[in-house]
Request: fold
Amino acid sequence: MSDVLKIGDKSYSSRLIVGTGKYRDFEEMRRALDASGAEIVTVALRRIDLSDTSKPSLLDSIDTDRYTLLPNTAGCYTAEDAVRTCRLARELGMGDLVKLEVIGDPKTLFPDNEALLAAARTLVRENFLVLPYTTDDPVLCKKLAEIGCAAVMPLGAPIGSGLGLCNPYNIRIILETVDLPVIVDAGVGTASDAAIAMEMGCAGVLMNTGIACAKDPVRMASAMRKA
Reply:
């Protein structure tokens, strides 16, 4: 495996992508991002109040000269909403790289696979670099690859659960099936979970809750950096 994470025409030395939600405050988030060594940070665009300029926003707290922003469509329940959110990210100057989420169940936050495919087709046609959050279904991941997504991001376990890779066999099949970076998204709760994913051959992992909700997010971020 190469020592870099390659997405589209860009390469990253860190294989850890980190989220920006659930921290106690922006300062804690900044310190955790720094400790993680991550180069890509994902931002839930629908959870940012872009109209309130009276106080610092999440985006003001992220050094965009240092980090690549990965806007995501968390909170979108239809393909149309997800596509609209990605277009907004592009209009705001965040580029073409997007993490596509179309939620099908508000309790588990499992994706709506049918809507995910529809949104991915539209976004790829519009020249977005699409990183879809998906179930660990090898057939679905193959379809997303055939559509032209830049990577696939199968969940290891339900979002926020910290259960690790519940079905490593499916992840192995996905690795054998698609010729794209496979980034484990959701459920990664410990540095050892991340190490297992990397040992299997995954290109990277995305982690938010496991860092942000840890007793010491900065120490947890540092541990993930060393995984």
Q: What stands out?
A: The radius of gyration is 16 Å. DSSP finds eight helices and ten strands in the chain.
